Amino acid sequence: MGILLAIVIGVLYGSAIYLLVRRSLVKMLIGLGLLSHATNLLIFTAGGLTQGGPPVINPDAQRLTGAFSDPLPQALILTAIVIGLGVIAFALALSSRLYRATGSDDMNQINIGEK
Amino acid sequence: MLAGIVLIAPLILPLLSAIAGLLALAIRPLSRNLQNLISGIGSTALLLSALFLFLDVLKEGILVVQIGSWPMPFGITLVADIFTSIMILISGIIGFTGQIYSMASINPERIRIGYYPLFFTLLLGVNGAFLTGDLFNLYVWFEVMLMSSFVLMSIGRNPGQTSGAIKYVTINLFSSAIFLTALGILYGFVGTLNMADLAVKFSQARQAGESIGLINVVSGMFLIAFGIKAAVFPLFFWLPDSYYAPPPAISAVFAGLLTKVGVYALIRVFTLVFPLNEGSFQPVVLWIAGITMVTGVLGAVAQNEVRRILSFHIISQIGYMVMGLALYTPLAIAGSVFYIFHHVMVKTNLFFAGGLMERIGGTGDLKRLGGLYKNWPVLSVLFIIPALSLAGLPPLSGFFAKLSLLQAGFEIKSFWIVGVALIVSLLTLFSMTKIWTQAFWKPAPEIDDGECRERLLSQHEDVRSKKGQWYIPIFLLAAITLLVGFGAGIVFPIAMQAGEQLINPAGYIEAVFRSGG
């Protein structure tokens, strides 16, 4: 399971970086989205994979026993997903406005900040 | 209990001001005065709370609060040592002066879109990043700060601004992703993200002679992620475009605060969590510092717009701050802390003055500016103080900042970086004199176009009618530069204390554990 996830994460990072260095604005945004998914999966995997061990204390026990999955990475990912959603939504809105202003989604064409 | 209030006030006050500003916009969208009033109260309260925190930390030592009383590695810890409280004070001063400057220079349309609430969420994010003692929480505050800076940067109809903003957004999201990846790996290996807890676990592992997996990779990723935010070589390319595009009030606040949050994070993480002298990055960071100084200042030489020149100087100044970290002695870190304070005051002031010059001359292009010394003598005096301080002329604040860094460099016999720092400050002086001779001394260029002249004259009227709001922030910051320069004997020992706290983090760690035990 761990190795499978590691491969998935690697592929996600690789394609995200590939898309980020494209000149097309839309591909760049997709790259950013993939990058945040890759990161979330990485946190999930690095936090340790445990199957079938919810972090819930039994009513008759004082503390967690046996193998249980760490809830903290999931809380971190949840936060990161929410932040990622907001930021990507903003980037989409921004690029749609840029497209309307310049009529192009080629980064070389819309690079008018230099002037 | 009181410590909690003092610590949380710099977060609660900007949040409340932002909420109040939004409510006011919903109730009376057209009232500019109401917005000015709310933001004025908010920024004054923020400045006072920052001052209070600063004095309290000086008197009581390191303050710690565990949010929601959760025990420490599980909950979020807020910590204020002297370095943090100095940074909070800086953000309070910039918030206060920035708010006054905004009253004059931000147009009503922007205010209606919600300029002030965004301004305060920016300050909220900045203060949060300074106060937090938890790395994941640092990421969250970074995002709060970035999100508001994204919007502040892109509101407006100017396509150049939008294209600057998209670069800024992309590069910052990329750096956040690297930061988050490093956090994930770190958590996987150590099982905690609390900075004090991490510091203890790492030093225990070092003493036991164990190697912690991937520590070099993780610390390298932190270096890259914070390096992008701090705009060090070779990760600075996004900065000049982005800081040049938005209105002066916004770019001044950005120039003062945003990159410094990156520098703060670098200093904090590489003194506390991964002490720089333990890892293998110290020479790398020193080289980065040197090259950052040189590229920044050379980039500035080639520019002809006031704010573009100033933007490149931010990069070269970041080099000095990183240099203090890289030398890694108490004096050097104290020099960095002092440099940050000096730099924020001076750089924000130069952006304020640059914005006023643009308003008066109708352009920031040095070729088309001129005659400011003859017609606007007060502005000239107020410009020359921070300009000379930036170059490091005695007795202004920049001189002492540079002196302490050079002294630290001599002490550990790192002569080449001292040489680089001296040459760069000479080139800085050259850049400042370029602005001075072109914009202030050169006779004003003739404007043939009558319509254009009319517009400029009406802008001059506008500036004269809002004299206070334009000049007070510039005057206040220039006064601080002078005070810090003449009072360096009083101010520098505080920086020295901050430097010692940073280089011996035992006090910090103990304070966190004591309150969370």
Provide the fold topology:
The complex is a heterodimer of chains A (115) and B (517).
Chain A: H1 2-20, H2 25-46, H3 71-102
Chain B: H1 2-27, H2 32-60, E1 63-66, E2 77-80, H3 82-105, H4 108-113, H5 115-131, H6 135-154, H7 159-190, H8 195-207, H9 215-230, H10 239-244, H11 248-273, H12 282-301, H13 306-327, H14 330-361, H15 372-375, H16 377-391, H17 397-411, H18 415-441, H19 450-465, H20 467-486, H21 488-503, H22 506-516
Antiparallel strand pairs in B: 1-2
Helix pairs in contact in B: 1-2, 1-5, 2-3, 3-5, 3-11, 3-14, 3-20, 5-6, 5-11, 6-7, 6-11, 7-9, 8-22, 9-11, 11-13, 11-14, 12-13, 12-18, 13-14, 13-17, 13-18, 14-16, 14-17, 14-19, 14-20, 14-21, 16-18, 16-20, 17-18, 17-20, 20-21
Please give a structural write-up:
Chain A is mainly α and 115 residues long. Helix content of chain A is 63%, strand content 0%. Chain A has helices at residues 2-20, 25-46, 71-102. The model of chain A has no long low-confidence stretch (mean pLDDT 86). Chain B has 517 residues and is an all-alpha fold. Chain B has a two-stranded antiparallel sheet. The radius of gyration of chain B is 22 Å and the shape is globular. The chains are: A mainly alpha (115), B mainly alpha (517). The A-B interface holds A 20, 25, 28, 32, 35-36, 38-39, 42-43, 45-48, 72-73, 76, 79-80, 83, 86-87, 90-91, 94-95, 97-98, 101-102, 110-115 and B 74, 136, 139-140, 143, 146-147, 150-151, 154, 159-160, 162-167, 169-170, 173-174, 177, 180-181, 183-185, 187-189, 241-242, 244-245.
Chain pair with largest interface: A-B, 36 and 35 residues
Question: What is the name of the CATH architecture of chain A?
Answer: Orthogonal Bundle
Number of domains of chain A: 1
User: How many whole angstroms does the radius of gyration of chain A measure?
Assistant: 20 Å
- pLDDT under 50 segments of chain A (min length 5)? none
